Every structure is written in C-alpha cells, then in structure tokens.
Amino acid sequence: MKVISISNIKGGVAKTTTAATLAAGLNKRGYKVLMIDSDPQMNLTMCFTQEPEEGTPSLYTLYDKGAKIDDIKVEIRDGLDLVLGDFELCSADMEFFKKAGSLKLLSKAIKSLGAAYDFIILDTPPNLGFLSLNAFMISDCIVTPMAADSFSLRAVRLLKRTLEEVAEEAEKDIPVAGILLTRYTDRTNVAKLLEESVESAAELLHTDIFNSRIRQATVVQESQIVKMDLFEYAPKAPVTKDYEAFIDELLERI
What we know:
By secondary structure, the chain is of the alpha/beta class. About 45% of the residues lie in helices and about 20% in strands.
C-alpha cells in the first residue's frame, strides 16, 4: 500500500483536482484506492458527493472519537472509497494537538487497514498544522502541485522544513515525488519564465518537475459540478490526457 499526500501551502494550485483525478485514474487502472479529505474546505468531498448532512461520519469523527476508517468511509464506486471532510476540522489545531500521540492518530487508523487498498490519496489543507502533519506522518511520498502563475519559493522552503521535522518524528524520509505544474498554458511567456524558479524549488525539495504539464481547462470545474471525475466527464479533453501522462509518470517514479 502506498500513501500519497497532495500538498502545497499556497491555495489555488489545483491541489484538490490533482488528488481527485489521481485517485480516479489509479482506480481506472484497476487499483483499489481510498481518498481522504483532510481539508476543512471539503473540496475533495464535494468533487464526488453532495454536501453531507451535519453529523455524517467523517475524518473529524476519526480524530474526535477514534472511529475506524472502515466505519466512516463511503463507496464512490467499486474500488474507490472516500473518507469525507468536515467543516468541523477548522478547529483541529486547537482541539486535537493536546491529545497524546496527536501526530500519529491518522497513522494508526491507516495502518489498521492492512492491505485493503493499493493506494491512499490524501488531500491536505493549505497550511502546515495538525491535519497536514498527520498526513505527512503516514505518507510514503508527497506530490506538490504548483500553479505556473502563482509560484512561491517561500512556501516551498516552509514545506521543506516541515517535512524534515516530520521525518525526524516519523523516523523515516518523506520524499517529494515531484512538482506538478498546473494551470499551464503555452500561449504566454509567464509559465515559461517561471519554470526556472520552479527548478529552484525542485532543487530545494530534492526532487524533479514532472514532465507532464496540466493545462487550464473549464471542463475541470464542470466535472466537479456534476460530481464526475475527468475520465468519466471528458475522457478526450487535453487536460484529461495531461493527467493520464502525469499518473503514468508518477507510477514510474514510485
């Protein structure tokens, strides 16, 4: 079982789209995949379901009551399950850091699954608090989406420092599998000019930029509105082919 966190502390970089499309693409290839929505904004949840009613079991239930993943997950389709996000997770830093072993709560829950899944994909929030740290502790690797028009080297430095600290606590290296350029277009010079800066970010994280580039596309938002993944909604769209290439590349790397 491989656990992959999708992380960038800058918002608006297609983090959730990458998590949802990666999970759906792996499932399309025949893998059993569990998605975990660890972002209080619940965007990953809303990609696949309507807004859950108050009190619906969620990731918050796991942290608050020690619920097992098997008791709170929902089936999206055969071989693709989801642990719902929850707006209640907004208070996670204040509420759960005081718990004994707080950084290993998610790790224990995932390890109890055994070999039930081939991949677990975690969508993390745009900060480095309790939720991201729990995700990193159990992750085998990180994928960092980075929008070509909103690059921040400072954010990368913060991520690097955090991963080093978590690696010490987890007693294992947590490598960054690669930086994925998103919202990319060949029609402007901006993306091309920024690639040099992104190369610097890759060096900081001891990784490479994925050869695949994810183009800007309105079908992404459309697919999320109708609760379908890109492979179902727009299988022939250029952005879907971009994600197909990224998934192939990621599988080679890991």
